[in-house]
Design a protein that fits this description.
single chain, 96 residues, lipopolysaccharide transport protein A fold, 6 strands, globular
Length: 96
């Protein structure tokens, strides 16, 4: 699915906080329980936030695999993706 952005939301087992995901393009593979987020991808899991050009998300295990800009990009593509070329992870400190 394509979106501006497309969004996905799931409540994991034994949790009261939703996992949320968004990207400009999203591919959902129901038989594999897998979502692939492409272009301006973002996944939020409780205190964690992942962003990158491509994120693969296992909806059963709640595992995230994030990728940044491909090393095979052309010079023009690298220039256009300078801001989004890296994977970014934000870990918030839990309040006690």
């Amino acid at each position: 699915m394509d979106g501006t952005p497309a969004k996905y939301r799931q409540l994991p087992d034994n949790s009261n906080v939703y996992d949320e995901a968004e990207a400009l393009r999203m591919e959902y593979y129901a038989l594999k329980n897998y979502v692939i987020l492409i272009d301006q991808a973002l996944v939020t899991q409780e205190e964690l936030r992942f962003s990158g050009d491509r994120i693969e998300y296992d909806t059963v295990l709640n595992k995230v695999k994030a990728e940044g800009q491909s090393s095979t990009s052309t010079k023009k593509e690298k220039h256009e993706k300078t801001k989004n070329g890296r994977v970014k992870i934000i870990i918030k400190k839990k309040e006690q």
